[in-house]
Amino acid sequence: MATGIPPKDKAVRQKKPLRIVYDGKLETADVLSQAYSPFSLAKTVNGDDDNRLYFGDNLRALLYMLDNGHKGAVRLIYIDPPFATASNFVNRNQEHAYSDCLGGAEYVEFLRERLIVMRELLAEDGSIYLHLDGHMAFVMKVIMDEVFGEKNCRAFITRKKCSAKNFAKNAYGHISDYIMFYSKTANYVWNRPFAPWAYDGMVEQYPYIDEKTGRRYKKTPIHAPGVRNGETGKEWRGKRPPKGKHWQHAPDKLDEFDARGEIYWSPTGNPRRIVFCEPDKGTPFQDIWLGFRDSANQAQKTTGYPTEKNFDMLKMIVGASSNPKDIVLDCFAGSGTTLGAAFELNRRWIGVDDSLESMRAILKRFTIGLDVYGDYVTENRHARGSLDLSAKCGFSFMSEKENIPLIDGLFPIRKAG
């Protein structure tokens, strides 16, 4: 029970913005005015397409993009940055991939500066997804509110990342991480994703059957909390909304529902909305995701890069928050899962990473193809039908570094000019 809350008085209850204060926090203008090194074309892979892969520090790459034609041009950003675990990560061949060595205020400012530039790159109807675990997700939620606006937080998603664990520890099993979904403005691209219906779930959610059509339906209230003085607060069919509530729709809209047979009248005269099940469409995704675990079985395909995320999850995100031909950006590109999902869904993509192993993994994804997870155990590489995009995907490789032996014998990249 909540106690001690002040009365509803604007002078007392005025909402004050929440900010995190720490040493070394730059003003937004100072972040955006930072100098960066120029990026040069290192090589065009499989033909010059609209896709770009940047090798170098992602803050400098983002600032470079901002000054070179991408301000307000990106429809969707997904990032899966280091999680502040104070760990080093290696690939399946035990080769160093990246270090996750930042923590505390240093980590927060590292990520905040990049988020500020990303906001400038986003289109007005664009969105960003930030993927973290419990180490820093709740601190960064406040930073995301500060950079993008609390009102633009569309979801704080909990994802089941793996199977049950921690059976030998005196703790709850750590099987979740978090994805923050923000839009830049109130008007953003949204293609609602649906999951296939499970029959038991359909019966539970839609327990009634229409005698005329055989369709399943459920009954929902037609009122909502809060008093309104406009149309939704008026009388309808001789009834007023329950005390302290209002109609969800204006009376003329409720008349339309009733004319179509979409209002159920109880024996006592209580109206409720009839909502029919659409089994072909599926059920809308909620903010708890149970079906997108990371690589866990021997039949899945992977680059072998550590912390590689679920490909189907990225396809769902890309499909929900962008349209064909839109630009999708991942500036912590890792193995290129976001880039692969964007390409498969006919989006343009931009990837950035500072790890040589990341560059190898991305080039492998788009040229040689992926290995079956189990092949890393048997070392029977490329034995079972790799995913080969080499004839389909072209991109420009941009670098701020010289003499980059990305994949020995196959892609020895040398900076042009």
User: In CATH terms, what is the architecture of the largest domain?
Assistant: 3-Layer(aba) Sandwich
Taking the sheet with the most strands, its summary is: 10 strands, mixed
- Radius of gyration, taken over Cα atoms and rounded to an integer in Å: 25 Å
The total tally of domains equals 2
The total of beta strands comes to 24
- Approximate helicity band: 10-25%
CATH level 4 superfamily of the largest domain? Vaccinia Virus protein VP39
CATH class of the largest domain: Alpha Beta
Which residue ranges are poorly predicted, with pLDDT under 50 across at least 5 consecutive positions? 87-91, 374-387
Global mean pLDDT: 83
Provide a descriptive summary of the structure in words:
It contains eleven helices and 24 strands. It is of the alpha/beta class. The protein has two domains: 20-193 and 285-413, Vaccinia Virus protein VP39 (Rossmann fold, 3-Layer(aba) Sandwich), CATH 3.40.50; 199-276, no CATH class. The strands form seven sheets. It has a ten-stranded mixed β-sheet, with helices on both faces. Strands 10-11-15-14 form a four-stranded antiparallel β-sheet. Strands 4-5 form a two-stranded antiparallel sheet. Strand 4 (87-90) and strand 5 (96-100) form a beta hairpin. The longest helix is centred in the N-terminal third of the chain and has 18 residues, at 104-121. It starts with 9 loop residues before the first helix and ends with a strand. The relative contact order is 0.18.
Short précis:
The chain is 24% helix and 26% strand. The protein is globular. The chain contains 11 helices and 24 strands.
